[in-house]
Amino acid sequence: MKTILVASSKGGAGKTTLATNLAAHFALDGKRTVLVDADPQGSSMHWAQRRAELESAVLPIDGSKKRGWHDAVPKDAERIVIDAPAGAMADDLDTFIEHADAIVVPVIPSGIDIEATVAFLNTLAKVPRVHKRKLPVGLVINRSKPWTNASQQAVEMLQGWPYPLLAQLRDTQAYVVLAGLGRSLFDYKSAQVRDHQADWDPLLKWIRKA
Fold first, then answer.
1. Residue 121 is part of a domain; what is its CATH number?
2. Can you state the angle between helices 15-28 and 43-50, rounded to 10 degrees?
3. What total of structural domains would you count in the chain?
């Protein structure tokens, strides 16, 4: 089974948006998918519960206690997505990092968020598997507004970091609306939605290779 950890030390960076949409994509692709919600707020758990009646349902697991969550994962699971708790540094995520095959870090294109992400990545760099390049780490700009100076400067800055900038997810209220329904971008096929789905393509390709 492939395990993707979505983590950031900055609250509001979009971890749950990334985690739920990734989980939905895997499930719609026919993979038996588990979503581990390590955040005490339980947003990912609620999303998965709203999706329970769909053919592409995702199994939610409470990971907020950090220990023992992996024992609850069915042996036939093919994909695991972990929504890490807000404010956590690498030392707080050891039980999740231990099982991860890749780590995805969302970043909001603002000075405060980028500064917080630097601090988080500095702790992540001390993880032996990350330091030895055996555990891939990738960055995703969330709520991007490509026409603004802030987003353009963020892209330029992140492209100089040692971890690849995988994707830029454009700012849209669709993520908020769909989350409340237990849905994702990948559940729909309208032209407008397909345009936003394309933002995810480089990230999904990177995950397949991880």
1. 3.40.50.300
2. 30
3. 1
pLDDT for position 82:
98
Give me the residues paired with residue 61 across strands: 36
pLDDT (0 to 100) of residue 160: 83
pTM: 0.95
Report, as ranges of residue numbers, the positions in the chain whose pLDDT lies below 50: none
CA distance linking residue 108 with residue 14, whole number of Å? 8
Domain limits at 199?
2-209
> CB burial class (10 A; 0-12, 13-18, 19+) of residue 22?
buried
How far is the C-alpha of 103 from the C-alpha of 94, rounded, in Å? 12
